Amino acid sequence: xxxxxxxxxxxxxxxxxxxxxxxxxxxxxxxxxxxxxxxxxxxxxxxxxxxxxxxxxxxxxxxxxxxxxxxxxxxxxxxxxxxxxxxxxxxxxxxxxxxxxxxxxxxxxxxxxxxxxxxxxxxxxxxxxxxxxxxxxxxxxxxxxxxxxxxxxxxxxxxxxxxxxxxxxxxxxxxxxxxxxxxxxxxxxxxxxxxxxxxxxxxxxxxxxxxxxxxxxxxxxxxxxxxxxxxxxxxxxxxxxxxxxxxxxxxxxxxxxxxxxxxxxxxxxxxxxxxxxxxx
Length: 280
Hints:
Layout: H1 2-7, E1 15-22, E2 25-32, H2 34-44, H3 68-75, E3 81-85, H4 89-101, H5 108-115, H6 119-128, H7 131-135, H8 141-145, H9 148-162, H10 171-177, H11 183-203, H12 219-234, H13 245-257, H14 263-279
Parallel strand pairs: 1-3
Antiparallel strand pairs: 1-2
Helix pairs in contact: 6-9, 6-11, 9-12, 11-12, 12-14, 13-14
């Protein structure tokens, strides 16, 4: 039936390969797709015929017995794959175990790590380990295991670079665009990210108002508040030396009184008002 899929030119799920350099030569190992590759090669070697449950017009035929145009279509069939570069053997074993033992497909961020290695990924990974994010419980254990923390930080960085983005699919552009990043530009983005974290640490001081106990640990709310503070900082505003208690009071109101269906739009409006009051 795999060959039937190819005959019908129906796309099959992506394969996953590990690309490793050994002794100045490139070696590729199959993490997911070994059985499919073996079956395709066996058919091309006439090791089996198209028997049941196949029921098409080529029933009982081997590859060499097919019409030339059909053989050509098989040979021209495109197999998509993701290729992991820079993975350690331990990471490859984890991926193999997840895909083959537990039938857990790789999510988009895990695939993105293989498709777009580079500076954007490395910076996102580095910033996702920030202690304030961990203490504020912005990420669950499961999200950290499946790179959900790195993906979310990537979304924030994308928002800092080019404004709020609508879809996670847009992240592929940023991973590709900033795979090679000028050190000074990357350092500036990192500095700005940590500056916003510093402001959040001041606003959500544990003894005053714990972020982990508010709605702002939710990603949509945290994302909106983070980028709002970033915009004010970019405009030259600062929380230094300001009494933050009025701001905390407004955030407490926002934490309890906003209807869920309008939370994102109203959050942005209130966050701007709160930070503006603190700056004034």
